[in-house]
Design goal:
The complex is a heterodimer of chains A (about 110) and B (about 110). Chain A is an all-beta fold and about 110 residues long. Chain A is built from no helices and 11 strands. In chain A, a hairpin with a 6-residue loop joins strand 4 and strand 5. In chain B, strands 2, 5, 6, 10, 11 and 12 form a 6-stranded mixed sheet that branches. In chain B, strands 3-9-8-7 form a 4-stranded antiparallel sheet, with no helix packed on it. A two-stranded antiparallel ribbon of chain B has the order 1-4. In chain B, strand 5 and strand 6 form a beta hairpin. Chain B is an all-beta fold. The chains are: A mainly beta (about 110), B mainly beta (about 110). The interface between A and B is medium-sized, with 25 and 21 residues.
Chain lengths: ~110, ~110
């Protein structure tokens, strides 16, 4: 497909488990972003990659959150020792340089 | 502080009528961009329209136009000839200067009635 692809679409985990969320950006997009969207709120920035370099991780809420994009394409957001407050939709977006960001459908994470 | 404010939690409009969704922003940076996204119940964020802080004219994209009033720091979205498929959450967002991240408002839920 031509759009941003995220998997899984839904993830349920028990508190304390580790989870990994995947984002496959639009081919050729050098910029990749992760956002967290709590229920009923707007998305909040987590982290930003330009190619494989993580240029901004100021939005990551704790050191339990880790993101990588080793080859400058697919990115993985990992959350360790999940807690209930991590329950949210995680959105990935990609873009060319200064162009508008294109978002995936998101991963809805529920922590029990 | 950099902030986006959307004061309308919910709006409704009759099909085929026009509707305006409000957005005000706060930044001291002279270079910024303003975006509107649509989020249907399925969850994806769909880019609608963009306005740069130095753009002289209001942006338009089909049935969408952005009423940009720089002195008032407002960037309202106008949807003309509403359609049932326009029912969704609408988010206003801002990108500041050299930073790439978007700052989003809380959103407005639009319901289009037949």
């Amino acid at each position: 497909g031509a759009g941003v692809s995220q998997s899984p679409r839904y993830k349920v985990a028990k508190r304390g488990q580790d989870v990994a969320l995947r984002c496959d950006p639009i081919s050729g997009h050098v910029s990749l972003f992760w956002y967290q969207q709590a229920l009923g709120q707007g998305p909040e920035f987590l982290t930003y990659f330009q190619n494989e370099a993580q240029l901004d991780k100021s939005g990551l809420p704790s050191d339990r959150f880790f993101a990588e994009r080793p080859e400058g394409s697919v990115s993985t957001l990992k959350i360790q020792r999940t807690q209930q407050e991590d329950s949210a939709v995680y959105l990935c977006a990609s873009s060319l340089a200064d162009q508008p960001q294109h978002f995936g459908d998101g991963t809805r994470l529920s922590i029990l | 502080a950099q902030k986006i404010t959307q004061t309308q939690p919910g709006m409704f409009v009759q099909e085929k009528e026009a509707v305006t969704l409000d957005c005000t922003y706060d930044t001291s940076d002279p270079s910024y961009g303003l975006f509107w996204y649509k989020q249907p119940s399925s969850g994806e964020m769909i880019f609608l329209i963009y306005q740069g802080s130095y753009d002289q004219q209001n942006a338009t994209e089909g049935r969408y136009s952005l009423n940009f009033q720089k002195a008032r720091k407002s960037a309202n979205l106008v949807i003309s000839a509403s359609q049932l498929g326009d029912s969704a959450m609408y988010f206003c967002a801002m990108r500041i200067g050299g930073y790439n991240k978007l700052i989003f408002g809380a959103g407005t839920r639009l319901a289009v009635h037949p």
